Amino acid sequence: MNFTSIDSIQSALRERNYIAERGLATSLYLALKLGRPLFLEGEAGVGKTEVAKVLASLLDTELIRLQCYEGLDVHHAVYEWNYTRQMMHIRLAESRGEKADEAELFGPEFLLRRPLLQAIEQSKEKPPVLLIDELDRSDEEFEAFLLEVLSDFQITIPEIGTIKTPNPPVVVITSNRTREVHDALKRRCLYYWIEYPSFEKELEIVQARLPQAPEKLARQVTGFIQQLREMDLYKLPGVAETLDWTTALVALDQQALDPVIVDETLGAVLKYQDDVDKIKGEKTRVILDRIKAEAA
Amino acid sequence: MSGRLLRNLLLFGRVLRGLGLDVNPGRMMDLVSALDHIEISNKSDFFYAARTLLVHEREDLPLFDEAFALFWRKPTEGWDVAWQGLTRRRRSTKPIVMPPPLKDEPPVANDSEATPQEPMTVIEVTRTYSDREVLRHKDFAQMSAEESEAVNELMWHLRWKVKERRSRRRRPGKGEMLDLRRTLRRSLRAGGEIFSWSYREPKLKPRPLVIIADISGSMERYTRVLLHFIYGMKSALTQPVEAFVFSTRLTRITRPLQIRDLDLAFKNVGELVNDWAGGTRIGESLKYFNFEWGRRVLGRGAVVLIISDGWDRGDVELLSREMARLKRNCHRVIWLNPLLGAPDYEPLTRGIQAALPHIDNFLPVHNLASLEDLANRLASLDQ
Fold first, then answer.
1. Between chain B's N and C termini, which has fewer beta carbons within 10 Å?
2. pTM: predicted TM-score of the whole model, two decimal places
3. Which A residues in the span 82-141 are in contact with B, Cβ-Cβ below 8 Å?
């Protein structure tokens, strides 16, 4: 699909139940037009990973995901040789009284393609969306390597040669900021910070994603979460929590929130015991009264 | 694109640079080409396009928003005034020109092979051995200006190293994990027969260091020398060193301390912090640290140094709770207390009492000798 304006991308996102702010749509649009990676930051659960998924669906292409972690190296990010198969191959050749051919042993047949290599190979046909998820979890070594890959989209495997593509994949990088990612890498990217959505936006998201939820419940849940984000909590609930909670309440056949059900299901929203203790009981009632007053 | 728009665009870029944003010509070129794809007449699209290309730090977003609003409007009366207000809020925290890494300053202790020759040379010229010993053991708070100078100088020669941790990255070595890649490679040389296995071992990496220093009124006599100490440590260590100060509220001073010019760095810190020698609210400050910064700077087995005399008039229960939280999230909590240097001092204040159960090491920090002791402890991290 070829997008001619920011409006077209925004409405295409909406058709796929992703409600994007104008700013995010602009960043996505420019990332596609300029062929630059998009660097997304924001609190946990605001839908960073979701952006890559919906983008893949939008472009009708595959999503290739590289989950980052400390110690992530070339063998897990780019390629690895299938050693067990190679060893078997050597033994089989031996049993036939032959000697394994080294060139064959290090040929494409024995190559395990990891996400970065997959993305570059597939780009020759149709550029996929490459999601580099939670880059802050990786270490400086990997970051430096990634910077290199992102600048020329080519990978050299000594035994096979250089693999490159004229049309690079669409790259989305996310970070939760558990570590500062180096400026040099961010400079190569378009940057967007995803904020928590406003009440209206969040309600739209809930209704788009969970159409089976009763309207009253959706409003109350969204209102409640919005109130929680104003409170002094160690870990604020994200949109993911709003959706989880609504799903849970729908499964319990709730038509609206009441103090008892809130306290019983608060674990879907708050993930630290301190926070649960703080909200449970008295505070729950106060917040419920407030959102009911606002709705009236 | 009209020449006038281009000129304004470039001027805007320079303004942002002046405000301390990381805007370079490459980014400006990107913006110019981006404008081919959007409706420039739509101000909000233009705004978002410029924002996504010219800013890559969340902290810079508000500053950009204000600068944009101010720059791209018709000049009216009061323009200059508003503009000046903005420049005063310039992110002095970020040096416009990044200094080269402080490689050649104080030598970083690497291995045991590093021989301690250079320390003390400076002072040796000017002072006798016994003078130096007196200075080493003299309380920072009782020093004359001249003695403080000498100590600041001496501090540069302390060798800092924080004990390493095993990272998740592995390299060939004597570990327990099979290195199939090398094993196979070597076996091929022997015609496919495996005679010995190759292994991989975890790579050691230095632990990040986080320093949280009390600059309240009761700590005033120590503040300046401790800033020197923090600055010296930050320059000497290669790993991330995060620094925060607090009296009634917490301020991050990591960025201003990155500047190579020490006087300028201290000046920037001074401008950034506006509660020097105020009251003490350790509990609240630690809570703010835990909530806002903990997740971002405590990863990877960080060591936390808290420098405070523990005179807290705030909520003791809060302090205890936040200390516990801090302890759970890092590798080691070391509390440095200048009062601990006094022979008759006993940690009886309620603040210290609340914090003590969550502290791994409770150490003095009142003279040079105590800093040397700290350096040794950090290098080994034994209990």
1. C
2. 0.85
3. 83, 86-87, 90-91, 93-94, 99-100, 102, 105, 139, 141
